Task: structure prediction
Amino acid sequence: MPIERPAPLRLVSSNEGPLTLELAFRRYAPYVAKVALRLLGRDNEVDDVVQEVFLIAIKGLSALREQDAIKGWLATVTVRVARKKLRARRLKSWLRLDDAPDYEDVAAPGASPEERALLARVYAVLDLQPADQRIAWTLRNVEREKLEDIAEICGCSLATVKRRVAAAQEAIEEALGDA
Result:
């Protein structure tokens, strides 16, 4: 009995034709990489996150009915993968198996040395926060997402997002003082 190959993954698009996994990767991999870098703060983990997100996408994209939902869905998957990495990193840090972080890649190319130093300090404080607080704060203050969107991406209530953002902000302000 011959083995049947599955049909290519396609999503219905109203104006651009079907969206294949390859096209989704070309279109959204830079977005996934940007979000992953901002959440994790380390460039050396971004490629792994992008690959893992699109491995998950191989199975999950077929369930999406509208092309417009892809970006949000990929953001949700990216957050889940990043959360897992942040938790593993925290355990490695506790066991003293984590390398010293370098946050140079997170800063914008034109950032001044002072801005780079401040950003490195902020990410050092975020390293000490629970993954969910770090993610909520980063999505709100770095990615400029709306609180409602963060709640949807993180799969929690609006009140929970507000608490997480506030807790991370408080820790940052306490650690940085007048910086």
